[in-house]
């Protein structure tokens, strides 16, 4: 497989925007996914701590303090490359955070890194996170995480400079139709 055949579909968005729903839809196409946040969760577990918002925030910020703002990209790219080595031509990278990560992906993959910003209103995102079955967040937890992601992790840059933006406020059928359209435009389908 040539380098030009490879696509990395990178999702970025605030908590509750619908990135996981987008990943579920794309995985149904047979594409594997790697999760930026999984690096943090794995590290929290390795430290023998409970996986919760407070511990994740500490670990996320410590990893970046030690490895720089691009540390998650540096750790996730080998996982993506391993999937390409297994013969996959499209890999989903779920949950980009920082501007440094954005630049690393664009430098490594160029236009084959398709950055998609998933957006929804703050109120809708908070409602979704309060009612999700796995790791629901209180309003205070969501607000704390939003502020940390914007103020400490440079999340606004990748959202603002994404190749595509999907406004996810119309339910799953609307989201999947919009995502299919984006994937076609990006040459992933």
How would you characterize this protein structure?
There is one protein chain. This protein is of the alpha/beta class and 189 residues long. It is 54% helix and 14% strand. A five-stranded parallel β-sheet has the order 2-3-1-4-5, with helices on both faces. The longest helix has 15 residues, at 53-67. 37% of the residues are buried.
Chart the SSEs and their pairings.
Layout: E1 7-12, H1 19-27, E2 33-35, H2 36-46, H3 53-67, H4 71-85, E3 90-96, H5 99-109, E4 113-119, H6 122-131, H7 139-151, H8 156-160, E5 164-167, H9 172-185
Parallel strand pairs: 1-3, 1-4, 2-3, 4-5
Helix pairs in contact: 2-3, 4-5
**Dominant shape:** globular
Helix content: 40-55%
Can you tell me the number of structural domains?
1
How is the CATH topology named?
Rossmann fold
Descriptive terms for the model:
five-stranded parallel beta sheet; single chain; globular; Rossmann fold; alpha/beta; 5 strands; 9 helices; 14% strand; 189 residues
Short description:
The chain is of the alpha/beta class and 189 residues long. Helices cover 54% and strands 14% of the residues.
